[in-house]
User: Which sequence fits this backbone?
């Protein structure tokens, strides 16, 4: 795809001076790839609108987090090796999952060390520091908070555990949401409490998981938001699955889809879980 | 003397397991359905969580203190052989006796022998996790010796024939009304019209315990810290009952895990700043009792220190798991844990519940029972525990590490088949794309019913019992990219 440079449709919305166009590798994650393709498309739309080139290396599959977190380290290492190889040579890798980004940053080095495979370790050393969660990539790497989005809805934000405590995204998602035109951002009570997803935890301890989700759903209802957003489709699948089961009339939607929206038409078609 | 209904002394000398202990998921299933328990736990943990956050926020150098606490413990554990011998030497030269116990059975036998030699048939106890771990009360009862718990919450647990469910607040699962009922039933000193406000309940316990303190020939304690240089033991507590146990009886027996050691007095400063703020959310601890051996005409005439291993050296051998030995038993991780808040302490089947229990119990006891093997999975890995831990134990990292050990310890796990199959699909872009196409075909049938899956077969029914599942979309992202952008790279 040709380098489009700065998008002229949104004058004054981007940091002054030259924004260097980057070649960004999109790590879409297996979950978003398989179940939430609209989130992946939204990331592409958003990054291209900001003047960057997006690559989707076709050799990518799953980062191995589910296997790793469930105790299947050998299998996880096999997946990790493949993923690290698929992203060779990208100056930045962006993913719409803070959890998968944290898996690469926090656990890949140890996993590569366990295999004793020097090539794998080299790939990981190169990849880990260049993996970014979408929100902080926008605010800290590109340096933009107003991405030119329009989303006229009442929204509350759930800070997912791994975005908060592993990737330490801080207030980046809030700053991005506050800059969205038409968006009414409302507080989520007990926001930093886990929704209870926890990967295979949701299946291995379904009762505790459901009890945690019940409280998260109650907090969302209390916020009176019509949309709950987050930086991770896994947690949103959990929260959204409960909201849908309860016919709560609140939809769960990935942050990327809100940030990619530029009009009511876009907003109406968006919406994960 | 009552023996807690579900507890039994360990047959092989390790930590007692609670009789008929179910694995975590089924124990938790019962607990989440108990509305009284849920309310009691939410009420108590929410209050302490907020208080802790406030007093920690006051200190600008909290993170430095935390890292110092971690560094001191790491250093001590790495040189445990040196410091243990130094402690033995300094306790002995201060007039104390040091006993080494490989496991709980050895430790209990030493204590029983000492008490029998004093011709005593009862002992007053200050709150001690290590004696809970060893199952000391049950072992004493089998030998005709009555253990009298003097910590208010431990007393509540003991009188109720119950089990502790929290490290700091063993009776956290009970509310005031339940405690009032219990006291009216079990304490003869309780007035007939005993109200269930905290001052009345405390006064009743106080009246009940005062005579026991004055009568007791033997006191039993644990210790929060043992200072190697001076042979000093330190007990921090809030009620003053500990000080009476430590100073009134002629003979004092202290059960101390070998990881409780710190090198010097200087190091104590760091922990006396970290511990109260993390545990009771106090700036300073109300009662801090420190003793070194015995002193003439003051306090106990005879002091015995029982140093307990009970799985600790085995834990030390695990490079990732050993960080659990840094724990100073503050229980901050329990109070912030959303799983603990909903499951309660009993579901963990161990005196050590919550996140720290989930990494400590399976290491101290080994993962041979299904219950112990289930503990590392009793977490959503949210990381709130790591965030508050005053000695920076990376509990999520240790949990994930122990999950791998649990999987290895059960080679014929049926789950393995699923994870092997999943790995072979998820590691290959081609196989993933194929599976996605199959999913889309299946999904198109479901999509006619609003794109929602309401029921799936086991084990996925665990999801759809309470949550809808998304139907696979007509086209994966990968397929969309290759259709619209294929070759454009």
Assistant:
């Amino acid at each position: 795809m040709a380098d489009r440079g700065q998008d002229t449709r949104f004058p004054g919305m981007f940091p002054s001076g030259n924004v260097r166009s980057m070649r960004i590798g999109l790590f879409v994650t297996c979950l978003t790839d398989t179940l939430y393709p609209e989130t992946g498309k939204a990331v592409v739309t958003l990054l291209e609108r900001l003047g960057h080139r997006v690559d989707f290396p076709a050799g990518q599959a799953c980062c191995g987090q589910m296997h790793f977190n469930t105790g299947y380290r050998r299998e996880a290492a096999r997946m990790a090796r493949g993923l690290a190889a698929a992203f060779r040579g990208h100056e930045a890798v962006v993913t719409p999952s803070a959890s998968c980004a944290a898996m690469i940053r926090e656990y890949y080095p140890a996993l590569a060390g366990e295999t004793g495979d020097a090539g794998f370790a080299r790939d990981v050393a190169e990849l880990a520091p260049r993996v970014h969660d979408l929100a902080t990539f926008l605010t800290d790497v590109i340096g933009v908070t107003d991405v030119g989005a329009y989303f006229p809805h009442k929204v509350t934000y759930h800070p997912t555990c791994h975005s908060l405590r592993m990737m330490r995204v801080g207030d980046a998602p809030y700053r991005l949401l506050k800059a969205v035109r038409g968006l009414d951002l409302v507080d989520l009570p007990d926001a930093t409490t886990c929704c209870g997803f926890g990967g295979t935890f949701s299946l291995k301890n379904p009762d505790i998981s459901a009890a945690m989700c019940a409280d998260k759903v109650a907090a969302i209802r209390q916020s009176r938001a019509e949309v709950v957003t987050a930086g991770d489709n896994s947690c949103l699948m959990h929260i959204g699955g409960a909201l849908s089961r309860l016919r709560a009339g609140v939809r769960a939607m990935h942050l990327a889809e809100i940030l990619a929206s530029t009009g009511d038409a876009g907003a109406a078609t968006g919406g994960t879980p | 003397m009552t023996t807690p209904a579900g507890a039994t002394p360990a047959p092989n000398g390790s930590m007692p397991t609670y009789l008929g202990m179910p694995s975590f998921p089924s124990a938790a299933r019962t607990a989440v359905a108990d509305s009284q328990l849920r309310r009691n736990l939410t009420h108590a943990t929410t209050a302490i969580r907020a208080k802790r956050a406030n007093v920690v926020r006051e200190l600008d150098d909290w993170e430095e203190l935390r890292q110092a606490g971690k560094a001191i413990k790491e250093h001590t554990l790495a040189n445990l052989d040196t410091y243990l011998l130094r402690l033995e030497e300094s306790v002995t030269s201060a007039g104390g006796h040091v006993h080494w116990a490989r496991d709980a059975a050895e430790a209990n036998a030493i204590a029983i022998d000492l008490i029998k030699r004093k011709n005593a048939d009862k002992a007053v106890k200050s709150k001690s996790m290590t004696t809970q771990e060893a199952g000391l009360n049950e072992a004493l009862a089998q030998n005709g010796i009555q253990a009298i718990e003097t910590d208010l919450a431990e007393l509540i647990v003991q009188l109720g024939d119950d089990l502790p469910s929290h490290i700091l607040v063993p009776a956290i699962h009970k509310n005031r009304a339940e405690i009032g009922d219990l006291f009216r039933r079990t304490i003869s000193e309780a007035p007939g019209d005993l109200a269930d406000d905290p001052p009345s309940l405390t006064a009743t316990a106080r009246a009940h315990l005062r005579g026991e303190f004055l009568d007791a020939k033997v006191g039993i304690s644990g210790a929060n810290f043992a200072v190697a240089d001076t042979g000093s033991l330190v007990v921090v507590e809030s009620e003053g009952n500990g000080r009476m146990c430590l100073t009134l009886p002629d003979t004092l027996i202290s059960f101390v895990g070998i990881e409780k050691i710190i090198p010097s007095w200087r190091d104590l400063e760091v922990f006396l700043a970290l511990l109260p703020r993390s545990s009771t959310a106090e700036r300073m601890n109300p009662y801090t009792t420190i003793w070194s051996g015995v002193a003439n005409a003051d306090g106990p005439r005879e002091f015995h220190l029982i140093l307990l291993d009970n799985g600790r050296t085995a834990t030390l051998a695990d490079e990732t798991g050993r960080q659990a030995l840094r724990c100073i038993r503050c229980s901050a991780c329990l109070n912030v844990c959303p799983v603990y808040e909903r499951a309660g302490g009993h579901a963990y089947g161990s005196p050590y519940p919550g996140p720290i229990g989930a990494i400590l119990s399976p290491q101290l006891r080994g993962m041979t029972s299904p219950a112990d093997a289930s503990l590392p999975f009793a977490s959503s890995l949210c990381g709130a525990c790591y965030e508050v831990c005053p000695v920076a134990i990376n509990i999520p990292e240790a949990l994930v590490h122990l999950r791998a050990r649990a999987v290895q310890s059960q080679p014929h796990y049926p789950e393995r088949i699923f994870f092997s199959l999943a790995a072979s699909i998820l590691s290959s872009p081609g196989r993933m794309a194929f599976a996605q196409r199959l999913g889309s075909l299946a999904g198109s049938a479901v999509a006619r019913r609003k794109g929602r899956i309401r029921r799936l077969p086991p084990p996925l029914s665990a999801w759809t019992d309470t949550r809808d599942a998304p139907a696979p979309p007509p086209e994966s992202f990968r397929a969309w990219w290759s259709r619209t952008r294929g070759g454009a790279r």
Remarks:
- The longest helix of chain A spans residues 98-115.
- The longest strand of chain A covers residues 23-26.
